[in-house]
Amino acid sequence: MNQQIKDEIYKCSKCGLCKSVCPIFQATKNEMYLPRGRYIVLNNYINNNIPLSSNFIKDTDICLNCNLCKLFCPSSIDSEKINTLIKNENNYKFGILTFFQYYQIILYSNYILRFLYKLFPFAFSDYRKVLYKINVKRNNTPANITENGKIIFFEGCFNKYINPSDKNAVINIIERNGYKVSSVISNCCGYPYLSDGDIKNFIKNGVNIFKKIDNDVKYIITSCDTCFNSLNKVFEYLPQYNNIKEKLITFDRFIKIADIKLNIDNNYQYYQPLLRNSGNINKQIPSLMENFIIYKHPKIADIIQNSEYFSEKDLSNDKIYTTCLLTKWGLIKRYNSKKINKEVLTIGEIIEKETNKKIS
To answer: Which residue of 57, 126, 245, 320 has the lowest C-beta tally within 10 Å?
Structure first.
């Protein structure tokens, strides 16, 4: 057993504070989905020097990785990292395919559907309801490029295959404000690897990304909190690339740095992804895409979606914007399944939408 795992779980005082904040436990009331419950069982495995059961390893995968437990834990135990190390050490497999492979199939399938929708919109009319709310086009001749600085945009796989409107919007906004997008990186951020506990390929994927980044780049911008979170985790394993870490920022932070006017219609309400948790659990309704749990464990996802613990009264507006592409997708799928009509956009899409209104 990894010594790091042992050191972490021995810090657990069994106080139960994680019980009051864990979204999975609040929805399921199952102690085995709770850090405290897992540590008690894990202690038993360690003390008796027996290998972990496959069921226990699978249970470690049932986690939203929101880290609320760590935020409220007196010992700051990192449950997400423990789960990752356990899955890595025991070669956890999602199924016949790894989850990374399964996720690639999802992406390519949606890419094909998007292509078919362009050719035969009448035959795929329902597809637009799921993935598209606006369709931002890329400006061919961006105005006022004054070379304030060279920027790399990390679009990730989701922008590339499913939601190109956000990528187009972000690049348009960056270049309208005097910066030059020198290149676009389309690699997966590696989160599916991390979700499977595949640290080796997670690190390898990170190296492939960092090799594409020139030293003279001023900012590396991502419009997805999941990508930003995953890339930051790579630095834990690759400290030699810390010079890149200083340049990595989210698009909404870049907006503040570049002093871009953010005129968002008052009708739009911000949905804060769990990855940005501030400890205010009442306003963080899991979109269920933040650890792909909606695909990996659909029965658990269904229980969470229908749990009374997650009231939607805080998201009363018909228009919502968020800072994570996976969250956007999850919210759209959530509302469509409940036949609730809401518009869900990213910050970039809203800015472009408002800009085009003024131009027209």
So the answer is: 126
